[in-house]
């Protein structure tokens, strides 16, 4: 029988790109999508995907759909605890969700670390225990914790895996959102600031990954799950307390990102000078309505190594580098503003 796959968030940047890749690689899989709204565009793109109308607050719909699936890909919202609890309620198959670990995320980092290179590079193999114990104020952590708890309590029945992309770049392939967050948010902040910028020395480093490399990790994980359903053998190194996957293809220092972005935006006539400027902590704090988002997006370190995918799933990033597609990412946002930072800020803190 064809494996039954349930996917959430498949009109979004990551979920939409994952759905496109899975249906292309495995047209025989029986895929069901939970959507807030079923558009004609979606049905035309995926005539064989069954759709169920529901949102992340529709706990019974999520729980029922998950219970009738072999594999659940939750790619929509890494902050919504209710949705994750519902998906885990009767889950008998494999669970995936998407999240990220950001070292020194803006909510908890001391100001003297902004713009300074941290020597710490996280590994999804060597640092499993520490990641499982990260404090609740880390981004996405409350929902990640639910997955760790489910793995600990029900690991014999539910195999979980959490995919932790850092900032993702490149054009997505979904029927809805095709742009990521980082470049559009930086673009908007640069327009408001009138130049590209960095904080302090601008030496904070960011792991980065192209959307196609995130997607290839998801496809490998789903294939691993299908294999274990077929054979009845679960590889302990891939799931549960070990089921953490960083997906990193490159690392860049923020000042270099700012210099390249400033150069492109100046050449497009969007700002006067290509030179990035140094910002103070107060200037950073005032961005995005004083939300602190700018520290998390542009001022902190997020350094990780994708050891697990490489070692146990044969994952290897192959997509173009950040600088190769930066101009296209900038132009995509310039021509079609899909990301609205105000809507993102309004939604933060409203998750149940
Ligand atoms: N993009 C990145 O760089 C990145 C990196 C690391 C982690 N992440 C995390 O990964 C997750 C997905 O990111 P993304 O970039 O793919 O986001 P996205 O493009 O905004 O997609 C979000 C998806 O979730 C759906 N959705 C949102 N709220 C919903 C609700 N209340 N009920 C049902 N569906 C809902 C959206 O459906 P509609 O079409 O109905 O709006 C859409 O399909 C997020 O939690 C994000 O923080 C993203």
TrEMBL record:
Task: List each coiled-coil range.
Answer: none
- Where does the record place the NAD(P)-binding domain? 9-98
Pfam families attached to this UniProt entry = Epimerase, NAD_binding_10
Q: Where is the NAD-dependent epimerase/dehydratase domain positioned along the sequence?
A: 144-224
Give the record's GO CC terms. cytoplasm
Which superkingdom?
Answer: Eukaryota
**Which Gene Ontology MF annotations are present?**
aldehyde dehydrogenase (NAD+) activity
Record's protein name: Nucleoside-diphosphate-sugar epimerase
